[in-house]
## 1
Amino acid sequence: MKEGSGTGRVRVFQYLHRPYQVLFFEEDDLVLLVLALILALCFGGKFWILIIPFVFGYASLKRKLPRGYLRHLLYATGLVKLKGLPTFFEDKFNE
């Protein structure tokens, strides 16, 4: 977000460690909410009822666990690759 034209100044957020929020949903909660809405639109029925418990259940689980636990769990299952790290299944690597 540039300020002015040609000044070279860049505006930075006050708290860099805080994730983006819409109302009280963080960005990963919003992704789950949108995915749940898409499933409800496609399949209908009971999926509409499951949206709220699904999103709030994930949020309460996320608050109970240490920060970054769910991302590392996805890394351990091989679903997500963490930046700068080898895959989880490699035994040896050189730094």
## 2
Amino acid sequence: MKALVQKAGLEDQFEIASAATSSEEIGNPVYPPARRKLAEHGIDCVGKLARQLQKRDFQTYDLLIGMDNANLRSMRRLGGNLAGKVHLLTDYTDLAGEIADPWYTGDFDATWHDVLEGCLGLLEQICGSAR
């Protein structure tokens, strides 16, 4: 999402962050196969370390986007839905369901495609015809 916003010249209008809903990977760098997939598309994540979603994030950010229903359940347990801030990324696409976790599927190409579709759809909804 950061790369899309930057490409659109809108980086000064957005604050984008990533946070885990679980604690398993806190403090770890981006998973190597995910890092390689991002690098294929010119996205650098050097120095990025996993952090856990905090209750204050519900006040800081206008939207909190989950990849799957387990993410949504964890978010709602932590902070509720606070004025409709919590959504699935696929809500901004024609895709049905959730983003498949490549940790389990091993299919980083499919996940890349689905996340990209979601981010493009979200950006389009926020900014109008950003595609």
